[in-house]
């Protein structure tokens, strides 16, 4: 199935009388609204997408899809929305779903389309069948051939109002789904409140049980990453921000183009617009110039045979013209006449088609994208003054240890300045998080529990450094076990073997916890290869680490069985190939080497020693650290 064949329509035209006269689609649900949940599940299944609504139109438009109002005066239920949708449908098929079914199947379009094709039907609609129960039809979940519009219009004109009634007039096929809950519609505020809080995912132990040979004392990097990925949940809160304020934020919904870009066929060159059919097959031809077109100033003149229009780059193509001769390709030309030789251009050359860059209804930017400067310009070109973005992730962090001192405090014997909080601050700042710096927490169970509770009640995630290895003053394990579902791992990696991960709870609030090692280099490596991806997942962001390849300029000793992260300096070799060398000593306490490096050499679990000239994976620091 090609999603581009199907348009999607969310039916949100009801009056919400059973929900305090508030539109069902706009009811708050799990940190967003019901219609946003429906849109999120429907978007991947269809091409163009629209919302059928009859009030609160600006609110619905803010969700990034065109809004269609019923074109029949008496608003005859969902069929009115369906008819309007079919009138505006630019694809062969239209799929409709209601705005109050936030769990609709992710394979709805595919299964309805397959059934419609198999049976040669006009309409395919969903049904469910629970054991011991009769088949329950769900006719508003339907896929309709767009050319069935005359049949529907005739049915409505005759006074018909029932979806089931119209289905009897067309060739319809019923498609039975197993999951009745997927078609559950929420009709009352009590139902809504009962479903508001999703259940927590499986416990860490349940997630870890899916890993073959799981051993918390010898866990490969990829297995630790998988457990974290499957345990972490996104934060679903969305906010609208001014376009300029969206830079660096995570796009919460697809931005659907409300216009064609370009809006009209236009010229890609300064030259002469003409009809391709008038180009000479041999010799030369002379055209009379009948007008001049500038960008932003279209002409009403329609050139006839042997006529052309002088046109500037971006000028709207005159009616009937389909080709542009660049001015430098003309044998001669001015504002009166132009002569062209055969073969100078082909019919259709140098014309930008309307919608060539973006078609109306297509996604200009996809949800999960971190907004870049070029995206600001794209959004401005489409007229978006505000952008829907994910709420900033709130992350609390602190260091643990009696030996740590903050900048400005005197250093006693055996004490060191706390550098980890500053590197963690910088890494979180680069991710665009809302940061809560809780300073240094002393080595006592009471202090650690107080800090974790405070962090948990004020943040979505917590990052600690130090206190996760085995030591006489490391109280982290017992305190975290008391507060939530936390596991301690010895990960097969260097640097950064000890790692704690889980979820802690306090006074009804919960936060995901990342307990990183205390060594300065280990804390940065652990952050970027475990915490970073999890935090981005919580933001619903799509920004994977950019592992590249470079040629090693030296031999690197390594035993298979653990993943190693070596600090490197990448340059360009004599033949132009990227080449990397190590910074020198790789001890996990040598923070200076991280400042000297401009990349990390990643030597994977199964790899052995590297010889000079071998290609290795690298993680460039630019834009990351």
TrEMBL record:
Occurrences of domain MoaB/Mog (ranges): 396-537
Broad enzyme group: transferase
Cofactor: Mg(2+)
Lineage top rank: taxon: Bacteria
Spans traversing the lipid bilayer: none
Cell location: Cytoplasm
Keyword line: Cytoplasm, GTP-binding, Magnesium, Metal-binding, Molybdenum, Molybdenum cofactor biosynthesis, Nucleotide-binding, Transferase
Any one GO MF annotation of this record: molybdenum cofactor guanylyltransferase activity
The protein's Enzyme Commission number: 2.7.7.77
Entry binding sites for GTP: 11-13, 24, 70, 100
GO cellular component labels: cytosol
Principal subcellular localisation of the protein: cytoplasm
Family: Belongs to the MobA family.
Biological role: Catalyzes the insertion of molybdate into adenylated molybdopterin with the concomitant release of AMP. Transfers a GMP moiety from GTP to Mo-molybdopterin (Mo-MPT) cofactor (Moco or molybdenum cofactor) to form Mo-molybdopterin guanine dinucleotide (Mo-MGD) cofactor.
Domain notes from UniProt: The N-terminal domain determines nucleotide recognition and specific binding, while the C-terminal domain determines the specific binding to the target protein.
Official protein name in the record: Molybdenum cofactor guanylyltransferase
The organism of origin for this protein: Massilia aurea
UniProt lineage: Bacteria, Pseudomonadati, Pseudomonadota, Betaproteobacteria, Burkholderiales
